[in-house]
Amino acid sequence: MIKNHIKIAWRNLFKNKSSFFLNCGGLAIGMASCILIAIYVWDELSYDRFYNNADDIARVVLRGNVNSEELKEAVVAAPVAKTFKEDFPQVKNATRLSKIYNPEIRYNNTTFENIKAAYVDPNFFDIFNLHFITGNANTSLIKPNSVVLTSSEAKKYFGNEDPIGKKIKLTEVEGDLEVTALLEDIPHNTHLQMDVFIPMNHDPSHTSNSWVTSGFATYVLLQPNTPLSSIETQIPGLLKKYMGDQVQKAIGISYEEFQKNNNIGLFLQPLKDIHLYSDFAPNTELSPSGDIKYVYIFSAIAIFMLLIACINFMNLATATATKRSREVGIRKVLGSAKKQLITQFLVESFITTLFAILLAIGLIALSLPYFNTMAGKELKLLNFFNLECILLLLSFVILVSLFSGSYPTFILSSFKPLMAIKNKFSASGKRNHLRSGMVVFQFVISAALILATIVVYNQMQFIQHKKLGYQKDQVIILRDAYKMGSTKVKSYKKELLKNPKITSVSQSAFVPAGETDNHMRGIFKNDEYLRKFFFYDVDEDYIPTLGLELLKGRNFSTELKNESNKAIINEEAAKILNLGENPIGKTFKRTADPENEEFTVIGVIKNFHFKSLHHQIDPLVLAYNPYGGLIMKTNNANITNILDFAEKKWSDFNIDEPFSYTFLDDSFSQTYSKEQQMGAILSIFTLLTIFVACLGLFGLITFSTEQRFKEIGIRKVLGANVTEIVGMLAKDFVKLIFVAFIIAFPLGHYFMQKWLQDFAYRIDLNLWQFILAAIITLTIALITISFKSIKAALQNPVKSLRTE
Q1: Helix, strand, coil in percent for the chain, rounding step 5
Q2: 10 Å Cβ neighbour count for 10?
Q3: Nearest Cα to 802, choosing from 720, 714, 728?
Q4: CA of 737: how far to CAs of 300, 471, 495, 778, in Å?
Q5: For the chain, how far is it from start to end, CA to CA, in angstroms?
Q6: Which letter does DSSP use for residue 484 in this model?
Q7: pLDDT tens digit string along 130-178?
Q8: Phi/psi at 724 (nearest 5 deg)?
Q9: Of 632, 613, 563, 659, which is closest to residue 761 (Cα–Cα)?
């Protein structure tokens, strides 16, 4: 019987090729989108879950509020790990990791850069069970000058040679490091993206007893099933015990007095939550984190895409029902039971869905490289070709075929034989309401996604064109120039300035976008602690190079002495310091130490965005202490010639370091890469959603024209023109689309307002954005409706009336 059903299904599907390919194509796009997003979501949710004790590992983090300054740091003080292990019986083990910034490794007179290296405690691999190819997790970091490498990192240095026992030189460490173990490459789905692991004893501050400084990513392994709250409730007492005297010494007030007006504490973050639920300062994170918000957004899009594709299948199937009405009538007259008809139509639905999933897999294989580029991922389809995934995919096909095929199946099998043979039947009111509901649902999703795409695009444009308070165009960063040494870098700067196309060159490791040094210091006025300020160490050319606006006072000058204790502050710093209308000449301190030299304010600059637009502008101090690379401002669009000149002058100094550069505007754009990725993905899936929704609308307009075939003929005979007939057919659908707007736009407003709240500087949602979304949606719908309705209106009325 099943064989017969399959044979008949095959004949029917290929008899109506256009309907089959429309059904198959719509389902394939919906299923491909759903599966592609599901792979992305699965990858995001898989972070840090492969460790054996993942459920019992937590990271210690710092949260607080000091003088209205919100503190969120993923690193804590050096003694935290040891203290937690000793004072809390729930903690089985604790370990630390200290990231090394901009390390260099030398081997055989070759220098390697862009290294991901960290100092770790010897018990690090006891908690994080990374897979060792050679060596022992328990002993690999016991020796003071040992080092553990990943296999790809070792191959970079030693090629195919055995790395064990070989020695490398890390610029931050005295003496050579001996390779004692080899790890498999770190999986991409962990926040611990390191390739070089060095014993913690090389970090100068690893034995510090200070609780008021931070810098160590600290992890605790808890006893099984230990509630985090059982430890967190004890942490305030522990902080008072160990921090009390240090707070008194650092800011001159008791710990109790400090906590009255401020709030600071340590908390435990589950290992599995680190990737998606972290909102800590980016410079304290080990690697860029994800965002659970985007997981929810894309999951919703995947579900809606699949639902829309299934609805299309229903609409297209019911639209072609009239063509099969006689077949159903004859089958019933010949004795076919309703159950047999249902089975027949479900088999057809399953075959269509099976073809669709095969097409979907092909679409995924073709689009995955582009999706990886947009999403910043390295997903591979082959990773999902296993028995578990195949069974899951088969279950998915069955569920989709049952869901999408159920409605048209029961519609077709419920035709009365006599009416079906005469090809005379009409849809009940309930069925019309259901179809109308399907159209409304499809266009609610389509209109909401179009609105979201417009808002995301406008916010990205706002960011790109907002006045930042500094000039980012035609500014080149030579970050590695400091490797020349202080004398040579000054000479190199002078050589660059000989080119008339280079207007200014500044030496500083601090740039307002991209990779930069970050110094924060506690600020005191009249021996009273205010809050932490950002400190940028700069030279006299920093302000003109970046085009900062000096509002009051003067710039730094090489002609004056003792500039090291002078400061130029931004407007926000002047406001917090409460220096009045004329802050020039007034002073503040960096610590509570009365012997510490004071900074004298010599200038005030206009606020500029030295952090991303997600954040309000913080207080900033520019101090005269030139170090780091070079920042070069040009006045010519021919950047290639300028770079050739800079590289030639670089080579004249005969240093081993290769010439490298970045553009400040590119660094600025990369700051918002996550939002740009989200916008690109959203745009693609919005287009696909609209396309699939239009397929469904095409199915319904087809159904409507077939239902009203004779009515159209009669109206034409009575003098109706094409415009009137098209208007008649389109009117009901346009009403449904406006109903969709009434639902979609309030939802879109709510969710986009929530998304925009992540930006301290953002656009306002305006009426024109909703009008534009409505116009785009309506235009696409009318084009889809017109395609079929115009064809019906132009048909010869004799064809529809000849049987009367």
Answers
A1: 50, 15, 30
A2: 13
A3: 714
A4: 21, 46, 66, 7
A5: 40
A6: G
A7: 899 888 888 888 888 898 999 999 898 888 888 898 888 887 788 888 8
A8: -65, -40
A9: 613
Tens-place pLDDT, residues 172-224: 788 888 889 999 999 988 999 999 999 998 888 888 888 877 889 999 999 99
- Pairing assessment for the beta strands 91-100 and 217-222 based on DSSP bridges: antiparallel
Report pLDDT digits (tens) over 707-728.
676 777 777 777 777 777 777 7
For residues 105 and 170, give the distance between their C-alpha atoms in angstroms, rounded to a whole number: 5
In the structure encoding, which two tokens stand for residue 247, read together?
């707070």
Phi/psi of residue 758, nearest 5 degrees: -70, -15
Residue with tokens 């992890």: 219
> Taking the model in full, what pTM does it have?
0.78
Which DSSP category does 589 fall into? B
Instruction: Mark residue 498 as left, alpha or beta (left: phi above 0; alpha: psi -120 to 50; beta: remaining).
Output: alpha
Contact 92, 224 (CB under 8 A): no
Task: Look at the block and give the residue holding tokens 């305030």.
Answer: 236
Residue 150 confidence (pLDDT):
92
Taking the C-alpha atoms of residue 673 and residue 679, their distance in angstroms, rounded to an integer, is 10
Q: Are 541 and 557 in contact (CB under 8 A)?
A: no
Quote the CA–CA distance of 688 and 699 in Å, as a whole number.
17
Residue 336: partners with Cβ closer than 8 Å, 6 or more residues away: none
- Distance, in Å, from the CA atom of 788 to the CA atom of 783, rounded to the nearest integer, reads 9
pLDDT at 420 exceeding the cut of 60: no
